[in-house]
Amino acid sequence: MPNHRISHRRLVQAAVLLTFASAGSAGATIPSAGTDANVAAHPVHYSYQTFDYPGATDTVLWGINDFGAMAGQYSLSGQQPHAMAYRNGHFESLSAGDLLGNNFSAAGGPNNLGVIFVDYADAAGLQHGLIMQWGQVKTIDFPGHPSANIDGVSLTGAITGVYWASNGYAHGILRQFGKDTLVDYPASRETYPLGNNGSGEMVGFWDTSPTDVHGFYRGLNGKFSSIDVPLPGATATIAYAINDVGQIAGEYFDTAGHIHGFVGTRGQYQSLDMPGAAATFVTNINNYGVAVGEYKDTAGHTHGFVATPR
Length: 310
Known about the structure:
four-stranded antiparallel beta sheet; Neuraminidase; 24 strands; 5% helix; mainly beta
């Protein structure tokens, strides 16, 4: 959810503008690209609500649980984004002693056990992870990798993360039962896990170049499937989240350079676009199908949103 993720989004968008050009769970059927049968015949309709941190110039929502608690980041004028949560009907800025400071930070989750994960930059610009639960804070780093993020914590405590190699390319890590496992899509240049569900299924994106970007699904047996949304004009796909019933949410880029959110349900995909927005990014989805994310308005400002199935 952090600045590295946003930076990659901008790189992919620029590439799209330039070029114009399996094991799964019962709920997560990963289709081949370009098959009309995979476009939702009866799309879900949503009601939309904007969420802006009070006084912020920009707000991003990165997570939502089944109880409606959310987390993300906000930006005040001239300041770095800062981690925040939305609980019991109120926004709150997150603090972890002196760790977050005035540098970049952003929060994801909470999961249904209340675990919030935070990524933050230190004074040297290196990124680290934190886990917050019941007032306790635990720092998460991956040995041998000085800059890393956390992008998901399952109900069993499995941590989905990413680190950056010396060449700047991202690689995924799964920390489970005290062991770190490398998560790299076969033959990829980069693999970036962005979310997991309660049982540990994982989604994200992989690429071979800035202009060849695909989503991925990783099952519990470690096998990968590529995700390319079969929606009209789609070029690049990034999968951000998978819920416990197998719905996958994310964003895709079209040939005109526009960015749309999507939700995939039992292999049927549909666009999710905030009405009137210049761009929509779906970053998470809970087990009731409620999606969150961010949208850009026509003036270029970023707002958080919640999309609730009607």
